[in-house]
Amino acid sequence: MRLRYLIPLVFFVVLVIFLGIGLTMDPERVPSPLVGKEVPDLTLASVDEADRTISTEQLKGQVYLLNVWASWCVACRQEHPVLMEASRDHPNLTIIGFDYKDKRPDAQRWLEQRGDPYDVSLFDPEGEAGIDLGVYGVPETFVVDRDGIIRHKHIGPMTRQDFRTTILPLVQELRADS
């Protein structure tokens, strides 16, 4: 009879412990299995031109940011000015957009209204390529080296501080290594 109450109590205590541990973790530091591995081979149309395709193979040889965004993403609105400043202040920085689960006209209108910080923006309307890329949600930003290896993944909206203290120094380090 006591066991009948003891098992749910033990289960509840274990659940509370896991919840407590989870609450102490930084949600922006979700480990990505792709960090340290090559960007998946993706070939997607651009947001601007449906008949123009770009592959990740074509991007090899340069250090770049791959920013996952969408016009429906509220957090992307918060991050977008940071990307605009990064593009303006660092014209040699290559920023590739990755429009995720969006509608082309909505994405084009969004970039027209807010500015376009991207060298090119890839279009993934169904989110299938995003699954290959290990996208948890938007926005996310990947730093990719010249060999096409993902060196860093930032989850959530990138702040100015994130860009200055983490992203830009890493990009500069990767450029210097080659």
Task: Describe what you observe in this structure.
- By secondary structure, the chain is of the alpha/beta class.
- The protein has one domain: Glutaredoxin (3-Layer(aba) Sandwich), CATH 3.40.30.
- Helices cover 41% and strands 20% of the residues.
- It contains 5 helices and 7 strands, in the order H-E-E-E-H-E-H-E-H-E-E-H.
- The chain has a 7-stranded mixed β-sheet.
- The model has no long low-confidence stretch (mean pLDDT 92).
- It is found in: Cell inner membrane.
What is the overall silhouette? Answer: elongated
CATH level 4 superfamily: Glutaredoxin
Bin the strand percentage. 15-25%
Largest sheet: 7 strands, mixed
Number of strands: 7
Series of secondary-structure elements, N-terminal to C-terminal: HEEEHEHEHEEH
From the 3D coordinates, which CATH architecture would you assign? 3-Layer(aba) Sandwich
Mean pLDDT: 92
Whole-number tally of structural domains: 1
Rounded to an integer in angstroms, the radius of gyration calculated over CA atoms is 20 Å
Order of strands in the sheet with the most strands? Answer: 2-1-5-4-3-6-7
Task: Determine the structural class based on helices, strands and strand pairing.
Answer: alpha/beta
Q: How far is the N terminus from the C terminus?
A: 69 Å
**Alpha plus pi helix count:** 5
Regions with little confidence, pLDDT below 50 for 5+ residues: none
Q: Would you give the CATH topology?
A: Glutaredoxin
Q: What is the helix content? A: 40-55%
- CATH class equals Alpha Beta
